[in-house]
Amino acid sequence: MCRKDNHERRPFLINSWQGSSAPTSALAQQMKMHAIESKKRRLPFHQLARSIKKNIVVVVFTCLFFVCLKIGYQIGTNLVGDDEDRSRSALRQPQLLRQQTHHHENREHSSRNQTQIVSRQPQRSELTQQMHHHGNGKPSPRNQTQVSRPVHPYEKIWPGLIVPDYMLKDPQYGIESVPAGKKACFVHVGKTAGSTVGCSLGFNLHCTSKVQAPGVLPHYTTNMFHAQMYDCDDETTTFFIFVVRHPLDRWISAFNYDNPSRDWEGFRQQFGEKHFKFRSQLYAECPFNTINDVGEALSAESNVTNVCKSRAEASIDGTEHFGCHHYFNYQFHLEAIPQNATIMTLRTEHLIEDWNSVEYNLGGGKEVLGQGNNIIAHNNVNKASDGKLKYLSEQSQRKVCEKLCNEIQTYKKILRLSINLSEEQVQESIDEVMNSCPIEALATTCSDPIPNITDKLIYSRGYMA
User: Fold this and answer.
1) No. of H helices and E strands in the chain?
2) 409 phi and psi angles, rounded to 5 deg
3) SS3 259
4) What is the CA radius of gyration of the chain?
5) Would you call 46 exposed, middle or buried from its count of C-beta atoms within 10 A (0-12, 13-18, 19+)?
6) For the whole prediction, is pTM greater than 0.90?
7) Do residues 345 and 353 make contact, with C-beta atoms less than 8 angstroms apart?
8) pLDDT tens, 390-418?
């Protein structure tokens, strides 16, 4: 109160003295200086008050900004988890994209479009949205207890994730000691007896029977590539070992294996909402309970909707994701490996013969497996492909074969590129295709263009710089 009173009275005193002749000019000057000094001493207090007010306002607005930002991030994360397309786009968005069209005369890869991605560092929260069709479908984040083992190629492509256990091999195989120039990567195309072969090679797949096969092949095959799980080391891998099967037989098995109509709720609990939605579009929203239903939908006389007809076609040529075994087909697995890769192939219909030839090409014995094989046991057998589930009318078979034309041409390419198969063996397998798809087996081109799967390769296979 004292300071306030003095401050209010002082102008009056000064003014009164200025209007009076009593005070001397020196005294007036002294009083003015005294007033100025007092004002200077009191001014910082008001400045401090104003500064404190400004700082409080800044702090409050900053806090509100970060609260809103956190809420927006949580909402965005939930939306990403519910929308597969947005999740895939956020998950696999490259920082720099170079598109190249590769052509290699010897490999007949004129249709291959491979895209290189440089310096991709996806966020951990986005990466965990990635769905896989084994186990619970989610690769685990890499933690400190797993750093002791070497980093796998898959983990370099997708930083923050680790290779699922089923992609790994038992330590007894000593894969670290493979001789230079002998390392092989197992290319597991779905529904080609890949689990049977993979278990015999020592991978931790869903093996009901697992016996170590003799020879060098299980020892030299160190990594695996299956669907979107690309774990081949392109720098050190010399051979890519495919397992293939008659394309029509593979598609039939894939359709029946991926069909969840026997237990929709059980499928949803096991594989999650994303894959449940994938399957629903083909198996629930469209009248496709059997392979014959799909074949009939391709005919001009079919009364199915255009949407369902389009989905039937896409499920055959692998251009839409309705099931992992449909989507990740021969074309995907062939175009995903390096352009100049050296390929060897195991044909399901001639497994023992081809196993021995691959073994011999790797430097092993000629007859490591006898014709009376009791070592390679069947694993993950599709029990849903018996009886009417395998039935195709003559007209439906023609339509399915026509739509499978590009897959059949890719199948033939793989056979011809295989260094362990002779011309007679390649022709043998083509003749087997002729029994069910004669036009496509003889064809070199198809009425439909080869699908451009550049986006599929980016989002599912991934590339390293």
Assistant:
1) 20, 7
2) -65, -40
3) coil
4) 35
5) exposed
6) no
7) no
8) 999 999 999 999 999 999 999 999 999 99
